[in-house]
Write a structure and sequence with these properties.
Arc Repressor Mutant, subunit A, two-stranded antiparallel sheet, 7 strands
Length: about 325
Amino acid sequence: MDPIPLVRARYAHAFAVTLDKLGVPLDRLLQEVNLPKDLLNNPDGLITAHQLWTFVGRAAQREGLSELGLIAGQVPVVEHGDFGRMVYQALTLHDAIQTFCHNARIEYSRAEFYLTRDKQNAWFCRGPIDGDDAMQRQQVELYVIIMMIDTIRLGVGPQWQPATIHLQTDDAKGLRDVPLFRGANIRFGCKRSAVGFPLKYLSKPLAGDIAAFTKPENQPDDIMLHADFAASLRHVLKNYIGKQHPNLEIASEIIGIHPRTIQRRLAQSGVSYQEVIDQARFESAAELIRNTNLKLTDIAFELGYSDAGHFTRAFRRWAGMTPREYRRFYAA
């Protein structure tokens, strides 16, 4: 038999907080779905997906809140526990979306996300939305779409708005008037949920200073402090990429901090020393490709690669495109 679909309690908590702010009594709703309040205070706890769907569907139906999922979904990606921090620490937008897709089942056991592309656009997609009725599925889908848009914004900026959105739900009354969707080409009744954006955005780096627009007012300062440490270390190490291999011992001498302390502080922000090196290498490579006419083989050599093929494979893994494609996009 198939396992019971499970989801993190943080999603029920997000809806509960939204409903409470709107003045909606919660006790009866929670009791109807056998969802104790203390479970909502454990964001990493597991509840059944059926409980979540029923809770949000009934709340939206009874209160006439057809866009409830849009409101509840305003939680920044970085606040979604370890999953959010992994996405937040990605090298590029391509890396962030792939991290999201590969780890989504940490949050919901039946989640299906994927990235596709055509000649001009990339598509961040979600497979079939679960739920017992249309209202339940609509609220789940709207929450998910906001998460996907917020992830894309990590690379392209907090003011970015999608031009094309595909939704599985039927044409929802008033949805086209929501500021986030205003002016977007929205298609309803699709087989998948999807947000489209220009293909060249995939290679945009997620710099450490994205904390400036992703940090909510109640975000613990220590998370951002550690992110700043990783970012500052990356900036220092960029000066040594290609000139020598800045291993952990060399980094320790440069910044005057014991190697174990460096590793501990990086681990607290969910990244490894090698990941910091990889990001420094990618940023250096991207700058050289964009801002110089150096041959790609020369750039590979300057960054310490003995083989141009290794450089091409690494760059594609980070940016979702080859160095040659990246140069062509930025030359256009």
